[in-house]
Amino acid sequence: MRHLRLVLGDQLHPRLATLTDLDPEADTVLMVEVAEEATYVRHHKQKLVLVFSAMRHFAAELRERGVRVDYVELEDPGNTGSFTGEVARAVARHAPDRIVVTEAGEWRVEAMMRDWEEAFGLPVEIRDDTRFLCPRPVFARWAEGREALRMETFYRAMRKRTGFLMEGRDPVGGQWNFDHDNRRRLPAGHVVPERRRFAPDAVTRAVMALVARRFPDHFGDLDGFAWPVTRAEALAALRHFLDDCLPGFGDYQDAMRAGTPFLYHGLIAPALNLGLLDAEEVCRAAEERWREGAAPLNAVEGFIRQILGWREYVRGLYWARMPDYPDTNALEATRDLPWFYWSGETAMACLAECVRDTKAHAHAHHIQRLMVLGNFALLAGLAPAQVEEWFLVVYADAYEWVELPNVHGMALWADGGLLGSKPYAASGAYIDRMSDYCRTCAYDVKAKSGETACPFNYLYWNFLITHEERLSRNPRLAMPYRTLAKMAPARRAEVLADSARFLDNLNASEGEPGGERAVGARAPDLFLVDPAG
């Protein structure tokens, strides 16, 4: 039989289920660059370079193994710009007996796949994605009947299922989670490792030119592109992290420092989500470092929890609750996303720093995303759909299956507690404790009220007041609500007034605290993204 085997741009693993029984004499692997996928959101320029370059390298590696690859580049004549259109053209070219694919990462893409059998009059075999450690049906069985889907419960089940960091039925070290040990601020003068980056080769440089030409108005810088685009580079990036960064990852995984975007973080999520690495090999390599005595348990457990726990968990939740999951808006947040999420032009140093990092590298680490960018969106009541689209646009590792639950459920609590037991709301004190951002900020993190006070301070209490009826019975918020109950009426009024003043001026450009200019006063060339786009 002749099989047409479609490999998507985020499925670039040599042991992908689509390829396991490939017959080089009869089968054709189809890979396509399509405009629809590049523009359904306006992806960061580096994300587009990463995906297209990695696809081209992967196709070349398959050809070196003797595999017949039909590769359609973005600017090839006749490219229809969509998966369905390109599969239709490939069916006409190759007259296959069957189409073979691996289940998609995103709901909308798999919905297309499920229409192909009828559209093309051919059997379409959709295989399980074995790059993940928890198959979708396993997660669905675990989630069945549960009102709340807690990651910690799932994570423990996955530890038992896989045996990672286990001694029989018990966790190594006598406890499941060392998160309490992983919250240290970087000491003054602390030197972090120099990070391994990858210079663009000829293939990547050609793709960079393509993206600059075809997508000039997309968010982000291209000049600093240095992500791994091959499996060999991804494995080198993993080894570098394990050797140079994993020992310090645990202690400092929540820390932030201006001008130091990468710290001890893995920087492997873009490669992992593309398929250049898989979850099992990453977890196994980290566990081996602990068993060899090369990395402490709190670091290794914290890292494995991000992969085996969190990453597998959000994927399972996504598929269990789609397509209705993004429709919820438990806190009725409706405010428009402010322009500084695109420009970085705000007097709030923490937000400006995180946006600058994001623009330069298509990267910000998980605390920057959750406790600065996400926390502000939560406190300001930004519309979930707009915040979710922003996160999907700007990060190299962002795909809807991982981005949507993280933002909708974790950062914004828009699912009403299905994912997280409480909203992750915090005042400026948290950012000050975990970073050096506040030292150079125009706002005063110690001040609680007034035009020069850190907006996170009064917005935090404003958030609790606004949602008091819904959240005050949450046991994990008992302490702040006890404090709020003792707050004098005059102080409450001050919080509400400061918050109203600030939120009414959210669409602001550069300027001093309390004196921001309206966005409309900005020069047109400062707009980084078309607001209607």
Outline the structure in words.
Helix 2 (45-64) packs across helix 7 (202-214) and helix 11 packs across helix 16 (400-411). A five-stranded parallel sheet has the order 3-2-1-4-5, sandwiched between helices. The chain has a two-stranded antiparallel ribbon with strand order 6-7. With 533 residues, it is mainly alpha-helical. The two termini are 45 Å apart. Helix content is 47%, strand content 5%.
Helix-strand layout with pairing:
Layout (H helix, E strand, L loop, with lengths): L2 E4 L21 E5 L2 H5 L5 H20 L4 E4 L10 H12 L3 E5 L4 H14 L3 E4 L8 H8 L7 H12 L3 E2 L2 E2 L30 H13 L16 H22 L16 H6 L4 H13 L5 H25 L18 H4 L5 H13 L4 H15 L3 H11 L5 H12 L16 H7 L20 H12 L1 H4 L6 H8 L3 H16 L29
InterPro entries: Crypto/Photolyase_FAD-like_sf, PhrB-like, Rossmann-like_a/b/a_fold, UV-DNA_repair_photolyase
Protein name: Deoxyribodipyrimidine photolyase
